[in-house]
User: What shape does this take?
Amino acid sequence: MKAKIISLLKSHSPGYISGEEISSILGISRTAVWKHIQKLRDNGYQIESHSRIGYRLVQAPDKLYQHELNEYMKSKIIGRKIVYREVVDSTNKVAKEMAQKGAEEGTVIIAEEQTAGKGRLGRLWFSPAGQGLWFSIILRSQISPADAPKMTLVAAVAVARTLREIGIPVGIKWPNDILIRERKLAGILTEMNAEIDKVNYLIVGIGINISLNGDVLPDEIASVATSMEEYAEGGISRIRVLASILNNFDSLYQEFTTGGFSNILDSWKDMSVTLNRRVKIHALGKIDEGLAFDIDEDGALILKKDDGTIKRVLSGEVSLRT
Ligand code: BT5
Assistant: This one.
């Protein structure tokens, strides 16, 4: 009912629609209409009312509600169901709990704030209220555990493609960073629940900084992070950015599950800031230095070390050298 009332208000905006008209279209009493309007106001909708002419939507809140997102969603699988929370510890953690209980493929969990957002290897992801997009996607494709790291690359292409479409010239740093001018705009954390030869489910967690407030940024984040607001003129609609990432992810995911990873890899390479650069890689307690010269079909980074030997790296921490 909430979504229907919002849709009626929007279709009449900036004009008024009478309570009587809403009540006759939706088949509810005028008192019920009034109660719904009150609830919408509590949810942050600015609605003017006038005794004779009715109700007028002045502004919808910048909240990531499913009924607001639906307007922009074109996806088939990803984001058909959106679970919205004001505050969670980590959307990846909530997604895992929901996946365990059988949540359907493509379910997205999104929060305004994370109190214990996760990075890789026990690191933290700083996720203040309303300043970013912090969300996780539940996937149940029939892939082998060895193919799971590819999903991080698929997600990176979805995020980078979306940001480039809106004019922010980001690059992808292997395996999970979206950078601009060598500062981190977004990160991806893919986790899985698997048996030896079968993935039960994957959780792809994505964090994107929209408007980090410099006053509350810890120093160690301020020195490495950036946010979209610094590069987008005229403000950003979090809802449109999120819908567009989910739509792009949806098409890439379908391409991936129908054997199209090599095309996705080509897009990844086109947007990469890692390839053909000197890099230092920390992996499993070892440090290697050399030229990052390719990504193979498994998503592994191929490093040509200074002694001429070739090393294949499946996971690790890359720093770009000049
Ligand atoms: C990542 O880890 O980049 C993965 C981040 C994934 C976050 C999303 S948010 C939704 C979902 N739910 C979760 O709980 N997590 C996912 P890693 O490569 O390990 O990078 C972590 C490092 O990035 C930290 O040690 C900081 O140096 C830096 N960092 C932390 N918060 C940041 C932020 N908001 N922006 C930029 N850099 C940040």
In short: The mean pLDDT is 93. The radius of gyration is 22 Å.
